[in-house]
Amino acid sequence: MTPFFFLVTVLTAAVAIAACRQTTPAPAAAPVITQAPAKPAEEAYVPGLGEIMTLQQMRHTKLWLAGQAANWDLADYEIKELGEGFDDVVKFHPTHEESPVDPKDAIPRMVTAPVNDLKAAIMKKDKKALEEGYDALTKACNDCHQATNFGFNVVQRPASNPYPNQVFTPKRQEVGGPK
Ligand code: HEC
Q1: pTM for this entry
Q2: Residue 117 lies in a domain
Q3: For atom 21 of ligand 1, which residue has the closest CA?
Q4: Which CATH number do you get for residue 97?
């Protein structure tokens, strides 16, 4: 073999080896289909029993103020709101902590009758019946607090009006415009 051919042979071999060694590029990574993680179900806001009660306290107060002002529309509104609030108690807090009496049982047993009596008094626009019904409801509130081991929460007829920005006197029906 002439030196020339030897050189060619060596170079050819070298090129061949180099070509073989060339690592084939890794195939483009297949797109990984990442499943979006399942979104946690929106956590619905559930008002605590104490929060519902704070609203009940407000409605209880306004019911009295509306009754004293003979504002029957407002009284009717407040007694309905109170009824809905008690529905929420049964729905969201059928039982409560270590309470020996379950709210789901206490509400129909203690509250439904005085609420219905108040609705009837308001329908009749009977102020005396409203006051009696109010005291009966207030007693039911306190009896339930006692029964559920929250007897230190005591409610009563409001001693004053804590809502200076609300008008409790009935809106005058201005028939034929102001005089
Ligand atoms: C199911 C029986 C039940 C009835 C009926 C009931 N309550 Fe309650 N009330 C509770 C319990 C239990 C609590 C304590 C809740 C808690 O764990 O925060 C409470 C708490 C309260 C509080 C304290 C709230 C605070 O955070 O300061 C008030 C005020 C209140 N109730 C008012 C009323 C009024 C007014 C009525 C009637 C119109 C009423 N409740 C009827 C069971 C009852």
Answers
A1: 0.79
A2: yes
A3: 53
A4: 1.20.120
